[in-house]
Amino acid sequence: MVATPPKPTTDISSISAFGTARATVQGSPLSGEELRKMHAFWRACNYLAVGMIYLRDNPLLREPLKIEQIKKRLLGHWGSSPGISFVYTHLNRVIKNQDLDMIYLVGPGHGAPGYLGPCYLEGTYSEIYPEKSEDEEGMKIFFKEFSFPGGVGSHCTPETPGSIHEGGELGYSISHAYGAAFDNPDLIVTVLVGDGESETGPLATSWHSNKFINPVRDGAVLPILHLNGYKINNPTIPARISHEELENLFRGYGYTPYFVEGSDPETMHQAMAATLDHCIGEIKKIQQEARSTGNAFRPRWPMIVLRSPKGWTGPEEVNGHKVEGFWRAHQVPMADVAKNPESFQLLENWLRGYKPEELFDHNGKLIPELKDLTPKGTRRIGANPHANGGLLRKDLRMPDFRQYGVKFDKPAQIEAENTKPLGVFLRDVMKWNPNNFRVFGPDENTSNKLQAIYEVSKKFWIAEFFPEDLDGSELSPDGRVMEMLSEHTLEGWLEGYLLTGRHGFFSTYEAFVHVIDSMFNQHAKWLDICRQLSWRADISSLNLLITSTVWRQDHNGFTHQDPGFLDLVVNKSAEVTRIYLPPDVNSLLSVADHCLRSKNYVNVIVSDKQSHLQYMDMDAAITHCTKGIGIWDWASNDRGCEPDLVMASAGDIPTLEALAATVMLREEFPDLKIRFINVVDLFKMQPDTEHPHGLSDRDFDSLFTIDKPIIFNFHGYPWLIHRLAYRRTNHKNLHVRGYKEKGNINTPLELAIQNQIDRYSIAMDAIDRIPSLKVAGAHAKEKFKNMQIDCRNYAHEYGVDKADVLHWKWPY
């Protein structure tokens, strides 16, 4: 049975406001002359947007358009561009009239034409890229290089002046905007949310960010939901619900929504101008009240719903099909202009309809009366320094991390919670940097043993308080610890905070850092492109602490066991990625200090939060971390000779088990020579030709030998080590143990046994791979196997590991 399609609604007012504008805020603040000029400026923006998509020559149509002047491959997205430039045009007005410090984030994917056009017209683009000058020749290059090999992409990529948000992956514009507003009291971040983007999960959750703004010390975010009705070739949900339902949705989120809906340019310009004036006034009133009293309260911030046709001002119909106001306007409305004379003529008519001869002078520059509409200097959206945050960045004041370490006399004799001293260190970093450093985490900072940070800053909370909240909840409207159970939103806040020149630290459970896999991808790609742009100033690194790790998730089970984020990180550019696996407190502190001081990286630190043996005093830890890899002399007995075996480890639990296996082998075979290597900087395993931190082949061969067996006990999936080291001389003798998707509710040792990273398994692996022990080691191998079975039986009977395992220490 074929379903009957729904009948078209008869109440089109709920889904389409095309025609004369209707708006929540009434008024006509623009004089006739202002209206004429603003509309002309917007026409220029739209002309440039169409030119970017179609033209490679004849940019001002000073001669009849020819087929050979059209790009052979038509790329770009027209549909959202007019709305994007419409907002840009109106932001210029309020910035200039009120001397506002404002940046503009564009959420709609592939929306660059609508942003690049006004950015070029204000002059910023030509200042950064002089070859794209404000004349006919520069405009020709500007058009040609859009979505063209060797040119720029169709998003607001890092190459785009004034952008801190690419929009390549949808869903993060709101969280980026709020991150930019934190600790920026004079900044207003206007963010345009696209139709399709509004349907994503991360975007939906990020609307709650308005509950994390302190109007006393933070800037403001003005969200604009741009409803043009469609995504690629489908209607969008918020564009097809009633006005009442949409208004109630945003009132439920805690905003005061203001609507601007229509298509008639004259009335839409007046409505948008009146609405923006009102919203800026509301923001200033909220801030003035909060700042004059010092009382941080949670207001209803304004937001705007802008409903305009998709492909506004474009062809109404092409080949008998509706285009303007329909999904067919999404990308290139007419892709057949080179083959279809009717489409070619329609394109020329479309371009000439904007009357470029009225907008640009004889040299091809925007005429002075329109140029005068743009702000000046760093007030221009494309030139605002907050969107090139490294220009504003100041180094952190850093306490001496050495003062927070653990002291002991001999390695592997005492235990400590690795992340707890880090929390004390971060506490003082926050104390010393009260206005440009924040800690982010999804309700897990206490769980991750970082709770010392609450001694100087509580968790930010400005919503309703209950009396019982005062008993241990650590909530405060003055807090600078940002906790929300949405890794997406937290990551977006942190990225926005870093991109506007500040510093941050993010901790999360290892299994659930995967929630931000694609956000990490996007940020790493952004950093990689920025490295190639001399005008982009250095920003602080994104620092991720991954804790509650796989080997101590024996109690939470299979769903909490996944160290695969490291595999994802390795996929990204070697120029921007760093992975550290410090095995104890002092090495973790050394690594954290280094990461907080660094720029332009994503630093991933893997360290479990539970109690672990401590191996290196502070001096040794600093030396070891500086090298990133090294021989532990105290755990080796091969000085002055070639080893029979290289035992290597990366990660806290794998290091413990590898050390225990080393002791077992030495006790059974006193003449056996074992070299013990620990890896803190994972990229040391790669050749220096592939990663800046990689070891040269000579150094690698010196450490790992060229022909001796290597047992490598690794924190993550074992194939990652093979992937990094596949070109090494001795790779054929490299045997890696790591997590293999085995385990559920176990004891810690039983989980290790199931994945064969335990001391017994790797001791038996060594016997199998040392030529002299393959036969002679049979009795020892049987002994180790029996011990392993005994440990598993004990765990299943008593629910815990045996005492000699739980309290193992280095015996020598």
UniProtKB/TrEMBL annotation:
Its EC number is 4.1.2.-. Residues 31-391 form the Xylulose 5-phosphate/Fructose 6-phosphate phosphoketolase N-terminal domain. It holds the Pfam family XFP_C. Residues 609-810 form the Xylulose 5-phosphate/Fructose 6-phosphate phosphoketolase C-terminal domain. Its cofactor is thiamine diphosphate. This is Probable phosphoketolase. Transmembrane segments: none annotated. Keywords: Lyase, Thiamine pyrophosphate. The keyword DNA-binding does not apply. InterPro entries: Phosphoketolase, THDP-binding, Transketo_C/PFOR_II, Xul5P/Fru6P_PKetolase, Xul5P/Fru6P_PKetolase_C, Xul5P/Fru6P_PKetolase_CS, Xul5P/Fru6P_PKetolase_N, Xul5P/Fru6P_PKetolase_ThDP_BS. Belongs to the XFP family.
